[in-house]
Amino acid sequence: MPDRHTVDTITGDALDALYAELERTGRLLRHAQARARHWQGQAERYRQAWKSASRGRHTLTNELTRRAPLLGQYQAAIDRARKLASRWAVLRAYGSAATELRVALDGPESCEQHPTAPRIAGMCGACTQYPADLPKESRP
Question: Is 66 in the same domain as 17?
Fold first, then answer.
């Protein structure tokens, strides 16, 4: 360790070097303080985001818990409608209604020749070339 200067022994050059070192150390300290403030702000933002996400998670969990029984009720209603469509098809009295109900529940069956064609009134849109082919209620 260098000898400690006294007022009687310090030279002008040594004093200038000490002032330069003091200035350099002050700049480093100010930079470190600015970085610390920056990261402190970041930490606070992350803390707030975490709290918000946690509240959102609790809200979503509560909502899903509240609505979960409804999913079972909806599935039961769909199953009842499918059974009704099957009964109607067996009775043949409501055959077209049963087909429409099945299409509404399960989606339309695709035509083997045109699997990507749209369905129009229960018929393949590519196979139906003329408006006369369509049922009266769906003609343009």
Answer: yes
